[in-house]
């Protein structure tokens, strides 16, 4: 991967681009008024463009770029704040003050809703396997401004970790989070939103395994939750109780440790 500036104001953005290159551990290359296509063809590499207001990641294999934006979180947050209800919040059984670990962060839409639900005394941490995507999402959560104040406050509070969730889970103490959440790429594809289309080319497709689920159960105090396609075999394979929703393309599977203890 190479790092460069936006075409406009390249000189003014050079120091910022060099800082990003240092942060993500990739090489900076001067733009020299070349197009994205020309740079990718020359360097045969993915391209991260540093603009005045955002980072944009271009793949060698697709014309759809990836950049951070709140995606569905903007609409969902308004609905949740107005009604006090969100199906994800219900499935996770979130309470004020909870600590939540999102093992498949993506654009952090669920993590942001979780932060609204757990409130100022709760914490939400998300794991993103691709280190450059993790950097971009953390930057976006920190700098995005086009949203209402409660959403912005929640966004600023998300902690992003870069790594493989199986490795990071194994390092955590027993019952260190109230809820551990997974939203892996579905086994059966759905029509993806515009926001997810760009991410798909950079996502690291981490499937679940019994070992990962066992680690999640160990780390969770109360509940492990899996979001997946309604036809997914992973619910039954790993022992999740499915919360079925009529006409929904995806369901939530729950392993409730409190119920098991009872």
TrEMBL record:
Which Pfam family, giving just one, matches this sequence?
SAM_MT
Query: Does this UniProt record's set of keywords contain Transport?
Result: no
Sorted alphabetically, the keyword list is: Ubiquinone
Protein name as catalogued:
Ubiquinone/menaquinone biosynthesis C-methylase UbiE
């Amino acid at each position: 991967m190479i790092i460069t500036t936006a075409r406009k104001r390249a000189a003014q953005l050079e120091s910022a681009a060099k800082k990003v290159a240092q942060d993500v551990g990739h090489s900076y290359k001067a733009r020299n008024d070349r197009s994205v296509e020309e740079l990718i063809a020359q360097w045969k590499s993915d391209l991260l463009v540093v603009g005045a207001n955002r980072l944009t990641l271009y793949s060698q294999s697709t014309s759809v770029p990836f950049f951070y934006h709140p995606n569905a979180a903007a609409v969902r947050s308004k609905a949740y704040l107005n009604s006090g209800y969100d199906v994800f919040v219900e499935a996770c059984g979130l309470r004020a003050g909870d600590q939540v670990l999102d093992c498949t962060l993506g654009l952090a839409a669920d993590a942001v809703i979780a932060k609204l639900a757990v409130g100022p005394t709760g914490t939400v941490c998300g794991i993103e396997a691709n280190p450059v995507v993790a950097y971009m999402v953390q930057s976006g959560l920190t700098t995005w401004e086009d949203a209402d104040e409660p959403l912005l406050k929640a966004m600023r509070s998300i902690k992003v970790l870069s790594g493989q969730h199986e490795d990071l889970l194994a390092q955590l103490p027993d019952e260190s989070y109230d809820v551990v959440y997974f939203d892996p790429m579905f086994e059966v594809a759905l029509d993806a939103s515009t926001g997810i289309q760009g991410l798909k080319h950079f996502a690291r497709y981490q499937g679940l395994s019994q070992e990962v689920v066992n680690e999640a159960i160990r780390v969770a105090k109360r509940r492990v939750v899996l979001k997946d396609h309604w036809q997914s075999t992973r619910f039954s394979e790993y022992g999740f109780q499915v919360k079925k929703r009529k006409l929904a393309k995806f369901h939530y599977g729950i392993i409730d440790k409190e119920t098991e203890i009872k």
